[in-house]
Amino acid sequence: MQTHDALMFITQRPEVTFMRGEGSWLYDANGEAYLDFVQGWAVNSLGHASAVMQEALARQAAKVINVSPAYYNEPMERLAARLAELSGLDRVFFTNSGAEANEGAIKLARKWGKIRRNRAHEIVVFEDAFHGRTLATMSASGKRGWDKLFEPKVPGFVRVPRNNLEAVRSAIGPRTCAVMLEPIQGESGVLLFTDEFLQDLHKLTREFGVLLILDEIQTGVGRTGTMFAFESAGCPPDIMTLGKGLGGGVPLAALLARKEISVFEAGDQGGTFNGNPLMTAVGDAVVAEVSKPEFLAGVREAGDYLAQQLRALSVELGLGEVRGRGLLVALELGEPIGKQVVELALEHRLLINSPRPACLRFMPALNVTRQEIDSMVAKLRAVVHAGR
Length: 388
What we know:
Layout (H helix, E strand, L loop, with lengths): L17 E5 L2 E4 L4 E4 L2 H4 L8 H11 L12 H14 L3 E5 L2 H19 L5 E5 L8 H6 L16 E4 L4 H7 L4 E6 L2 E2 L5 E2 L2 H14 L2 E5 L13 H5 L5 E4 L10 E5 L19 H14 L2 H25 L4 E4 L2 E5 L5 H10 L2 E2 L1 E4 L2 E4 L7 H18 L1
Parallel strand pairs: 3-15, 5-6, 5-7, 7-10, 10-11
Antiparallel strand pairs: 1-2, 2-3, 4-12, 8-9, 11-12, 13-14, 14-17, 16-17
Helix pairs in contact: 2-9, 3-9, 10-12, 11-12
């Protein structure tokens, strides 16, 4: 029996086992180097084997790893205070995954709706959204093919088209407690809500007295070149969720909310490992690094360079649109060859992702270099030529 035979099947994985990583590179069991522009699906903010994270892990592991969420711990308090200050939101609840954070956001909005909006419980969500893999977050998502999976779904979600303010207006009623969306729909191919729509949506939720929930699991913590995507859009939320890059590779996510919306009572919410000192110590080190103005400026510069190089490649090879913000970028291929391109890229020791059949997504480490971007583009050029 091969060592991976004991794993339950959930997806088709290639026959490669990675043993170690360094920055933008992963190394397999044979010592072969792979250029990683997936980075755990936008998770590894500081790349593989970050010295910042190693030091935080070692330092905290020598002190205490877990004290139970029934007690305070110093790294949890420190990271909560840092996130509150950076976001302008007041209260933080830590979780282990983005789906769990979004589940908490749904619960919090419904609890608020029950108390403050005459038992309102419905949440307006958007086509093509992706909010996680729990039953409630799957129900809130608009991922194609999920509509009949694991039925029956959790009720109470009203779905509308992206960037359609009038559809949102029509969907809001007396039973509505919130509107929930990702500023950029990463899993659907890096599809952006326009800044104008987000600004108008913010005004609309204020007009109707409902909550605005921003799922920044993928866009938060520097990914788009600002600490949070809502900053450049001018769309401050009532509730926000963070994950992926928050822990830089360790399982850590967070639910943030304004003070007056934080209506959980004792026993409403919890989790065995939530806010444990080991993970929050790492998260605090990651956020401290990423939130530096010079670091965020570097993300914007690298993102502009990546988009520029991809646009040049698109013109050269007759491909399609390049879109995104910061270091969350997509390239349209013009034909449904994404899976084939990803497989050929692996043969060229390049890791990329195809969220849609005709689309590639690039999510490198936030400290990726120009030389690594150039190397990726050169590999991709060869791959696309080989795939045609």
